[in-house]
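Possible regression after last week's pipeline update?

I re-ran a chain I had predicted before the update to compare outputs. Posting the input and the new output here so someone can diff against the archived version. Not blocking, just want to make sure nothing changed silently.
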Amino acid sequence: MGLEDYKEVVETCASITTMGFMLSGTLICKDIYQKGSSKGFDLMPFLGGTGMCILMLQYASILRDPLMININVFGLFVNAVYMAVYYYFTPHTKDTRALIGKVAVFVAIFLAYAQVENPKKVEYRFGIIVTVLQLLLIAFPLVHLGDIIKTKNTDILPFPLIFMGTFVSFQWLLYGLIINNIFIIFQNVVIFGLSLMQLSLFVIFPSKSKVKSDNHEKMN
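New output (post-update):
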């Protein structure tokens, strides 16, 4: 039996874990709510996630893949909610609006491109675009690598998103192999590797806020 025989099982598992991954942002929103401010939290996981869901919806439409369409509709909705929470609690509304505007223009350009490109070439070329953007989004937390090593603190990294993303990328890798889509395979091989790299940082440099919380509980 080949992987194709397990397509329905992989589809179901990928759907469930991807939705779980997308819902993991609620943990970050909970921290923002408890703190009463989104200061110190990175906007890009939510903003980038919103933009990527829109672009992946376009790509899924090109592929005519119902699974990818349904997943990204769900992702677009939850990321929009996360964005609303972040914006409500941000002390820098002007800067946040400016960044949202830039990303909106960026996404609109690629959507327009997909409409005017040769139908025979758009699947391959748009696949390259979403692959590159997806990898940049996943690798984005690594821009803080220097600060993490310097402070030996991983508080700035969104652990729930990274942790769930590791499982999700592995299952989408299997799905890519089943449907024989080189872009989905390549995306998730690299994403899986990047996710493992980022998870290793939590082992090397535990969250200082978590350490303080544990010490406080021991004292009580």
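Follow-up from reviewer: compared with the archived run. Confidence is low (pLDDT under 50) at residues 211-219. Marking as no regression found.
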